[in-house]
Amino acid sequence: MPITARTASSTPSAATDNPGYVLMAAVIAALTDSSGGAAADGTIGAVTAPTALTDNGGGTANGTVEAVTATTAITDNGGGAAADGTIAAITLTEPANLAAQATINNQLADAVKELSTKINTIITWQTAVANNFKELTTAQAANRLAIVALTDAITELATKQNAVVAAMKTAGQMATA
After folding, report:
1. How crowded is the C-beta side of 121, counted as CA atoms within 13 Å?
2. Grouped pLDDT means (10 residues each) for the chain, 177 residues
3. Could you give the maximum distance between any two Cα atoms of the chain, in Å?
C-alpha cells in the first residue's frame, strides 16, 4: 500500500480510517551554527572535563597571573643556635673581656640563623606560589581544549540536524517553507 502524506488540515478521520496516510510535520527551520567550532567532519570528539582545582591559596584574583621567581637560598655560615623563631636582643657595647665578646658573637650568630631560616621559608613559599600558578594555567589550558571540543560538537550536531530536516523535507515528511 503506498504511503500518502497529508497535512494537519486534512480530514482527521483519513489517518485513522486509512493506515496508508502519514501526518506531515510542520516546517522546522534549519539550525544556525554560531558555535565557532571546526568544520563538521562527521564525528563528535570526546570531551573530558578537567579535574577541578582546590583553592587553598587564599589569594585574590585580579585577572592577571604575575611572574613569581624564586630567589636563591641563603647559605647559613653563622654557626648560631638552632632557629626557634625569635631574634634575641643584642646589646652592642664595648666588650670588657673575651667572654663578653663571645656572648655578642653568639647573639649575632643566632640572629643570622633566624634570618636565614625565615628567608629560606619565604623561598619555599615562592616556589609553592609558582607551582600554584602553573596549576592554574595548566587547568585553564585543559578548559580551553574542552570548550573547543564542545564548539566542534555543536557544529557536528547542527550539521546532522540540518541534514535530517532536509531529508525529511525531501521525503515529504515535513512541510517546506
Report:
1. 8
2. 50 52 63 79 75 70 71 73 76 80 86 85 81 80 82 85 86 79
3. 124
